[in-house]
Please model this.
Amino acid sequence: MTVIISDIGERYESVLQAHCDVLICADGKYAPCQGCFGCWTRHPAECFMKDRLQQVCRTVGKADLLTIVTENFYGSYSPNVKTVLDRSIGLSTPLSTWRGKQMHHTLRYGKHRLLRVIVYGDITKQERETFALMAKRNAVNDGYEKSEVIFLNTPDNLENVI
Model:
């Protein structure tokens, strides 16, 4: 399954929708994670908050290809994208395992193929390096075989890279 998490709004929604099975719009119209860890323990992979992100753990967990489209915020995800990622913590379990010569949480949905991050906006060399490292670490944590980061000045060229 191909999943896209995007903060670029309705203008590009049809372009993104054509390239995925599920589009998660990071538009900020949902509650942030409360840090209760219920999606880890009490009701696995399901958030207790009844909004559009209640099942986001399961959706993201089943993605073989996860594409994140985000505006650059000082070398990191936009706040709305970060909120979606925070709400998907239940895609792993609270148990730990040895993976990639390091301790990581056990994957609830197994391994995945590719984590792709498409970053748009002004971005410095140092921010590019930070994004590349962050995507690589996110890929290891979430069980992706590899990661790639693509930088765009504006989202207008999105259709050419997705």
